[in-house]
Amino acid sequence: MNRVGWAAAGAVAVVLGVSGCGGGDGGTGRGAGGASAPAGPRPEDSGPITKAKMRVVLDTVTADVGAPPNDPDWARMDEKPRPGTLHECSLRYKGFDTAADTLDVERTDALTAALTARGWTKSPKGEKRTAEDGTIDLILAVFEKREWSPVLEYRLFSDNRTLSLTAFDKTCVERIGPVENPIPGLRTPWS
Q: E-assigned strands of the chain?
């Protein structure tokens, strides 16, 4: 090919590259050959909430309010969920009162505030029960955000206190099918 031929071929290549046909990215964000360029980081609270993301939410929100770490026995239950059950559709955090960490109503209220500050919507239904001596011995609350619904539960027993968050993947719960609501009157992902 002579110089005129090479010049013409070069001009065609430049025109095709500028118009987005082949070579360049043409403003599409795709590199040469049409491969996608790496996407920039998403905003922290965008996209679907995966089970892994939900695990991080449970662990960080409870740590941020000073709740004890997830009980190892409860943590193991999430490692091998039974297929076809609500266990498959949920993740759990369960903290028990210890000598170093006292679980109380204030810590439970702080957990509620931390969840709502992160964009979780608290359902108007829930329960706060007061014992005969005036102490609050039960708090139940349901939160929602996209496809997940965590249920918060605080219980005061005679010898200890527990705080738990059980997060349900609503899409999975719908796939599993109807189940009995274990807490009558409380709005849950499956009621």
A: 90-96, 121-130, 136-144, 148-156, 161-169
Say how far apart CA 6 and CA 19 lie, in whole Å.
20
Alpha-carbon distance of 99 to 102, in angstroms, equals 7
Q: How high is the pLDDT of residue 70?
A: 92
Q: Tell me what pLDDT residue 44 has.
A: 53
Distances (CA, A) of 106 to 85, 103, 147: 33, 8, 28
* DSSP assigned state of 41: P
Give how far the C-alpha of residue 32 lies from the chain's centroid of Cα atoms, to the nearest Å. Answer: 36
Q: Which of 134, 152, 143, 146 is nearest to 171 (CA)?
A: 146
- From CA 160, how far away is CA 162, in angstroms rounded? 7
Q: What are the respective helix, strand and coil percentages of the chain, to the nearest 5?
A: 35, 25, 40
Tell me the three state secondary structure of residue 181: coil
Q: What whole-number distance in Å separates Cα of residue 162 and Cα of residue 152?
A: 11
Contacts of 140 (CB under 8 A, 6+ apart): 126, 127, 128, 151, 152, 153, 183, 186
Joined together, the tokens standing for residue 3 give 């110089």
Greatest mean pLDDT among 7-11, 29-33, 42-46, 157-161: 157-161
- Cα 144 from chain centroid? 10
pLDDT for 56-97, tens place per residue?
Answer: 999 999 999 999 999 999 888 888 877 877 888 899 999 998
